[in-house]
Amino acid sequence: MSEPSHFKLDGEDIPCRPGQTVMQAAQAAGRYIPHLCWHPDFAPHGSCKICVVKADGRTVAACTFEARPGMQVENRTPEMDDHRRRLLNMLFVEGNHFCPSCEKSGNCTLQATAYELGMANFHFDHFFPDRPVDASHPDVMLDFNRCIQCELCVRASRDVDGKQIFALAGRGIRSHLIVNSASGRLADSNFAVSDRAASVCPVGVILKKRVGFAIPIGSRRYDAAPISAEAQPSPPPAQGERP
Amino acid sequence: MGFELETALPSDQPLQRVAIDPVSRVEGHGKVTLLLDAQNRVHQVRLHIVEFRGFERIAQGRPYWEIPVMVQRLCGICPVSHHLAASKAMDLIVGARQLTPSAEKMRRLMHYGQILQSHALHFFHLSSPDLLFGFDSEVARRNIVGVIADHPDIAKKGVLLRKYGQEVIRHTAGKRVHGTGSVPGGVNKSLSAEDRAAMRGEIEQIVLWCREAVELIKRLHLHNRALYDGFGAFRSNIMGLVAPDGALDLYHGALRVRDADGNIVLDQADYQGYETLLTEEVKPWSYMKFPYLTALGPQLGWYKVGPLARIQNCDYIPTPHAEAERREFCDHAGGKPFAGTLGYHWARMVEMLFAAESIERILADDDLEGRELTVQGERRREGVGVIEAPRGTLIHHYRVGDNDLVTMANLIVSTTHNNQAMNTAVREVAKQYLDGREITEGLLNHIEVAIRAYDPCLSCATHALGQMPLEVLLADADGNTLDYVLRDHEHTIRRPPAPAGGIAL
Prior knowledge:
The complex is a heterodimer of chains A (243) and B (505). Chain A has 243 residues and is of the alpha+beta class. Chain A is 17% helix and 14% strand.
């Protein structure tokens, strides 16, 4: 008797293949698991923990945990979403996220996820950290106030651009994003606006200059539908194509 | 004029202090303090406004393209004014000296929507209870709910006028409040045919209701002419933007100043040089500065801004119905600038009619659906943007570094321009109505009525009518409490034991 090739996600059968993570399988089936540091183009990082799910009773990160046939996974349950709201709360209060005047508003994954999860208030006191803006580069500005340390820029610069412009420095609560240049300024690195890292930031840290609010309200990424609506079933792999 | 009761003259008899604190508002607090003698005669009156100016510091270090959206959070009532004034300053930063026709018309449409909704809000929701029922009428009725009960047709039209203005803002800026439509060098959207048709379908009715509103305030004014002409009346200069031909233009123009007799003392002054034209005086008893015309000095150079100043400053209004009403108002004033504080209401309704007629005119223009939205030119490091906000002249001034971050921001908002005028109005009213009389809720409301006429960003005073708590302590010169009165949100007056330390001024 062969092993079943599905697992249960909130009671629904989700196909899975060997080596697929819970996140990958859910995404392929068009099911949304909230996430911030996961991106389909990059290796999973498992740092934000927003994708926390309960798999056969164990609390795990869906982006790093392998999907196993027959497994029971709890995703959008009140308990899991409550955990996620707490994590989002921490991310918001640790930085300076002023959505009302942020040009990323409406296109921001953090904001859209907070809306999706119904985060209506801040549970914790704000840290109000002092994080100066780096506007030294002629084409790109870094607003560290909004960094959630997802390391997507680190991965994109290292793995796609081959430049290693960004890194996280410090430990624990003092962790922060730095620029790998002698001065620490972006202008003194070999960063270019055409780099993959320039367009991968899910929040409003890495911003192309002089774009601002060019996209009107109503046409922004998350104006028409919530972030959960972005998850669409992937087409089946063509014959002979490696899934 | 204006300084008579600012500071009490030396007196042989002890003076008692009365404080109305807070005359609260949206972005801070205001208070009125009075010094009275034993016979309750007024010796000193001061309107203090604790204006939070943090945005000038917050803007520093932020990218210039963020400013028009960020700085509009100064206000939830007329954010479009800040949005556009900042955009006009940033137009200069990006070298956009002339916007595309589509961009300029979209901005003008947004601005006139703002004027319409703000003026409607002020007149119908906030001031009409005073004007319809009387300044010292029954408190329980003197609010918008009372207007709805007793004058449902007036209240309904007021609500719908404001709604229409808000819809114009939504169609042009993306949201009714705090939109993003205006960007450095232009706008980020044009008007869809559907949105344009929706607005055009209603504008005829809106213009008609605005004409009725002018008739209403005119009727109220003329029915009680002595009160309306004389309440808080004082002479002053008036200042505002006018078009090159002297027409009323609330979006763009150059500065004109008339003196109290109506003579033009400054005309077609480029507002880029506002720092030379105006000086802001600091007084130790108020957190808000007192601007004056540098050439005339602080004693003679202060002025009024806002509707009452604007419709008397311009040579004409470029829409027919509003121009006819302007002429009638000026005829009533008798050839000189009208001095009565309550004239603001009449003037405000004339402007609301102008805004509605302007919306009608702009909506007929196909440029609104154009595709050329932004322009850029030679990058500059400094820009001043000025607009006539609902409450008066609004100045935004920025310097931007080569790295695109703002290094300096200076804002002179309408309420600041009117600081001396509002103080003078309060003094006149105190002299006229409180002098030698026992304090009552109705008399306190007279002071609020004077402040409210300016529609300042004392927003709780003006935009939360009937919600303003008041605390009044009457003490003798030795600090002994003579009377202590609390008025709560429901206008209930209580006389609890006075606080041991008195009320801090």
